[in-house]
Design a protein that fits this description.
single chain, 215 residues, alpha+beta, Cathepsin B, Chain A, two-stranded antiparallel ribbon, 5 helices, globular, Papain-like_cys_pep_sf, USP_CS, cysteine-type deubiquitinase activity
Length: 215
């Protein structure tokens, strides 16, 4: 969706992203980099219909128009906070003519706040809210290389998330809970299932992360 809001507010977020100072090799750093403000110049200039119209005049033949390109700013922000947040980490990189697995550990929290990455006019966030919180409930991990490996999962068995139910059934949340949804974590590998600690989950080499909306 292309925003045509006032330039002064078009790049504003629900929470101040400049105070984040995200730690390297963390999911916050990944999100910060993905949503950074970009300047489009030279060969990346934006085609401006208004500038073209102003330059050529409204009565000119379309075939005679000289399209005008202009410098611009671009930023990817979340305009609709999802009920279920799925984060897919890029676990490969180009090395010459080959692809290599990226085995670096990326830190991720039990509760994450998306507000610094949401547009100030995020559609399904109540006015005045400066937090958009999510609780971790599932992780997919890949062990091995690009040629072979094994997928396992960590899943939290938990009670009903009433805040998520309010969002699904009523379109809004009435709660103010900021803690992760309580429950027991399990590691699942093929037919083997065993309980694990949350520290074991958070130390895994995540490939996919699944969060559910709290606020």
């Amino acid at each position: 969706e292309v925003s045509t809001d006032d330039p002064e507010t078009a790049f504003c977020t629900l929470a101040n992203r400049e105070q984040l100072n995200p730690e390297e090799d963390s999911i916050h750093h990944c999100l910060y980099q993905f949503t950074c403000n970009e300047t489009l110049t030279e060969t990346n200039k934006l085609l401006c219909d208004v500038c073209t119209q102003r330059h050529c005049g409204p009565k000119n033949n379309i075939s005679e128009k000289k399209y005008v390109y202009t410098n611009a700013k671009k930023q990817m922000l979340i305009s609709l906070a999802p009920l279920i947040l799925t984060l897919h980490l890029k676990r490969f990189q180009q090395a010459g003519f080959n692809l290599q697995k990226v085995n670096r550990h990326i830190k991720f929290p039990e509760v994450i706040d998306l507000a610094p990455f949401c547009t100030a006019k995020c559609k399904n966030v109540a006015e005045g809210n400066t937090k958009v919180l999510y609780s971790l409930y599932g992780v997919v991990e890949h062990c091995g290389t690009m040629r072979s490996g094994h997928y396992t999962a960590y899943v939290k068995m938990r009670a009903l998330n009433n805040h998520l139910s309010d969002l699904v059934l009523q379109g809004q949340s009435q709660g103010s809970e900021t803690e992760p949804v309580k429950g027991q974590w399990f590691h699942i590998s093929d037919t083997h299932v065993q309980p694990v600690s949350v520290s074991k989950v958070l130390s895994s080499q995540a490939y996919l992360l699944f969060y559910e909306r709290l606020l």
